[in-house]
Amino acid sequence: MPHNPFAQEARRVAAATGFRLGPLLYSARHYGRQYRNAIYTGTYRGKPAVLKLYDEPQPTDEPRALAAFHRSKRNAILRAPKLYASGIVSPSRGWLIMEELAHSGHFLHSPLSPADREEFLRVFMAYRKSFPTKPHRPLTLLEQLPAHEYHTVRISRWLQLAVDTEIARPLRQQALSGKEFAPLYEAALVLLRKEFKTRKMLWCHGHVKPKEIFQCEDGTYALTDFAHTRMYPEGYELAFIIWADWMLPGNWRLPYSQWKKPIQEWFTLIRPIAVRLGYTRVDALLHASLVERTLGIILADVESLDLSFAERRGRLKHLFRFLRELLDDKQVL
Fold first, then answer.
1. Among 67, 58, 52, which residue's Cα sits nearest to residue 91?
2. N or C terminus: fewer CB in 10 A for the chain?
3. Is the entire prediction scored with pTM above 0.85?
4. Cα-Cα-Cα-Cα dihedral of 156, 329, 293, 314, to 10°?
């Protein structure tokens, strides 16, 4: 496990709370840059527990978001880890001591099998029925923007991330062609502004994907990682599922038609979910939401992560073709 800057803070929290600190279980960085969190195993008041420390690049109050979920409607299918103790150091830093789940089941893994996709969506609907509909805190300025402006701001951040990464790379390693990408970027922004101009912003967990769902031995599930709880445009969470389960981890070496097939299968499953959630003009919403996700994966994931040149080029080839089809309004899905 690589070194991370949370070790001293972990010892301080452990000493202050009585948490018996065990090994570092997991740590993550923000697009390969600064460390954003670390999770340690251990015990708290005689119970197996984990200590999570976070320092996110944007404001978050994960302990309060988790506590708010525990206060929301009960659900027989879905719960969340018990919160034993927590502290908020700043608008972007804090820590949580939570129930350890590891010995009572397993986290889901992407890509899901076709059978597991339907079960995942059953859990997703349980989440939508259980999650608070109103924020537990005042909204940030970004969250108060209209949906189309919210998307525009986030995409501009990803563009800057890609530019910063590009500057640090040798010319021979540049995989993203501005000549090829610029027209797609411009057309995508036009579509997003048009489609989301009348769409609502919704209070969401923001990160419901297989990796964050823990399947317990008794057949129930636990939702984890409340660090991304905030306002999002409607449709965002549904496209996020496809992005997280296949577009990001999927096999980029497959021929395009085979690479696209799981996206089409997911779309078929998710469309009736969008209808059940009461969204209007469902096809237009999901197409536009996938445009946003495709821009995100091009700029923030493919270009900004430490991938080989061959993988970046291979992924971009599929993603550019998919984005063109979405923008051309073909029956791509």
1. 58
2. N
3. yes
4. -100
